[in-house]
Amino acid sequence: MSAQAHRLVFMGSPDFAVPSLDALVESKRFAPLLVASQPDKPRGRGREVSPTPVRQRAIERGIPSMTMSKETYADGVRVITEARPDIVVVVAFGLILRRDLLDFPEYGCINVHASLLPKLRGVSPIQAAILAGEKTTGCTTMHIDEGVDTGDMLLQDETPILDTDTAGTLSDRLAELGAKLLIKTLDGLIDGSVKPRAQDHTLATHTKKIKKAHGAIDWTRDAAYLARHVRAMSPWPTAYTYIGATRLIVEEAAPGSPQRGAPGVVISLDPLTVATGDGTLELRVVRPEGKRGMSAREFAAGYRVQVGDVLRSD
């Protein structure tokens, strides 16, 4: 295999994409000559305008970078094509690429997707895998086409979903898995050992973008689902409920006893247990909005929760 360095452009935005960028830089032969990312925007409590995690890493590593949005897409494509890449790598970039860029690089536009395609296409595969109660998930590298995660697959690798996994911990693990898979994929494309294979579209499932409102706990759902919901909504948008005038973020929970009650009704204080549509949910760590996290027992005592109180979704 030749040690020749290849002209590569990297397109990515969130934390999930940073390990892939790091792996490319450290590989030497695939070190990006340019990084494209979503526009800088206000972030954090101070709302200071700052770059995406990917562009911040590019700045730290001294890699030329640019921002790209729907409005500046054409200008972005012009800059990228002028760089004459023979590979474009896309990891959680946030924009759908069009044919004007997809057909340009010799080796195509390569994507790292956080699911075992064709399952869980779309923008929220990690949360969806936890919500669905999947036991395993993984990453897929593929050639990008004009569909949403419909391109020919290249390589896959998998990891178990632990009972303790949140979307945050699973995302971190998949980001590292995807970074290693990306380098293996690029090596295989260059030496011809990796061949594209079409997806079976009849097996495809799809995910939707997670929004803040999706964190609301629907107490009519069964306890096992709600325990997964709490994990899938962590760290964002968080699973939440209301008790009185307090918006309560549930950070840790688990299915409780099979005792029954009206959904949302507190049936025990030690441990703090709430009836669901099927079974009960034991709340373990909670956080009143604007306050620190605390044990559910501490919350129940401090906020004078009573058996029979009702937790609401709105």
Structural account:
- There is one protein chain.
- With 314 residues, the protein is an alpha+beta fold.
- It folds into 2 domains: 8-203, 3-Layer(aba) Sandwich (Rossmann fold); 212-312, Formyl transferase, C-terminal domain (Methionyl-tRNA Fmet Formyltransferase, Chain A, domain 2, Roll), CATH 3.10.25.
- 26% of the residues lie in helices and 25% in strands.
- The protein has 8 helices and 16 strands.
- It has helices at residues 18-27, 53-61, 73-82, 99-102, 125-131, 167-191, 223-232, 296-302, and strands spanning 8-12, 34-37, 41-43, 48-50, 65-67, 87-91, 109-113, 136-143, 153-160, 239-243, 246-255, 266-269, 272-275, 280-288, 294-295, 311-312.
- A 7-stranded mixed sheet has the order 5-2-1-6-7-8-9.
- A hairpin with a 5-residue loop joins strand 14 and strand 15 (294-295).
- Helix 1 runs parallel beside helix 6 and helix 5 (125-131) packs antiparallel against helix 7 (223-232).
- The protein is elongated.
- The model has no long low-confidence stretch (mean pLDDT 95).
